[in-house]
């Protein structure tokens, strides 16, 4: 199936950082997972706290400073062999943990749609 020469944003998910957040437990930002295989994930921290990001809900993978964004790419250089493409699979859940604060978090995935 041919691909379009374009990029679409998948479903965006937002979470609120509330007073009930536990600094020792990861909470899913996008509990239903990614709706498409994505070559780019963008996680935005709109809160007043540093956020720890996990891609498996167990391990610390990234740290996101206050009022910043994190972009994590797949792509040709991320896979082995280098002639293949590495994508975040459908269903991938991004988790976050922090101390209680105010503001929110969001995650968005970007993908190339199939052509008609």
What is the averaged pLDDT score?
Answer: 77
Number of strands: 9
What fraction, in percent, of the residue positions are helical? under 10%
Q: Runs with pLDDT <50, length 5+?
A: none
Order of helices and strands: EEEEEEEEE
Strand count, sense and barrel status of the largest sheet are: 5 strands, antiparallel
Supply the helix-strand structural class: mainly beta
Distance between the termini: 8 Å
The percentage of residues in β strands lies in 25-35%
> How many H/I helices?
0
Q: Please state the overall shape, judged from the principal axes of the Cα atoms.
A: globular
What gyration radius follows from the Cα positions, in whole Å? 15 Å
Write the layout of secondary structure elements.
Elements: E1 8-9, E2 13-16, E3 27-28, E4 40-45, E5 51-54, E6 62-64, E7 69-73, E8 95-97, E9 104-111
Antiparallel strand pairs: 1-9, 2-9, 3-8, 4-7, 4-9, 5-6, 5-8
Summarize the structure in short:
With 116 residues, the chain is an all-beta fold. The protein has strands spanning 8-9, 13-16, 27-28, 40-45, 51-54, 62-64, 69-73, 95-97, 104-111.
Question: Could you describe the 3D structure shown?
Answer:
By secondary structure, this protein is mainly β. The chain has no helices and 9 strands. The chain has strands at 8-9, 13-16, 27-28, 40-45, 51-54, 62-64, 69-73, 95-97, 104-111. Strands 1, 2, 4, 7 and 9 form a 5-stranded antiparallel β-sheet that branches. A 4-stranded antiparallel β-sheet has the order 3-8-5-6, with no helix packed on it. A hairpin with a 7-residue loop joins β5 (51-54) and β6. It starts with 7 loop residues before the first strand and ends in a 5-residue tail after the last strand. The mean pLDDT is 77.
């Amino acid at each position: 199936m041919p691909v379009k020469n374009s990029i679409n944003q998948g479903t965006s998910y937002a979470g609120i950082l509330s007073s009930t957040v536990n600094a020792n437990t990861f909470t899913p930002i996008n509990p239903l997972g990614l709706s498409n295989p994505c070559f780019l994930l963008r996680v935005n921290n709109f809160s007043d706290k540093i956020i720890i990001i996990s891609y498996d809900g167990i391990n610390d993978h990234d740290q996101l400073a206050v009022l910043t964004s994190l972009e994590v790419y797949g792509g040709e250089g991320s896979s082995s062999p280098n002639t293949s493409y590495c994508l975040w699979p459908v269903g991938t859940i991004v988790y976050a943990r922090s101390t209680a604060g105010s503001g929110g978090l969001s995650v968005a995935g970007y993908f190339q749609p199939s052509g008609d």
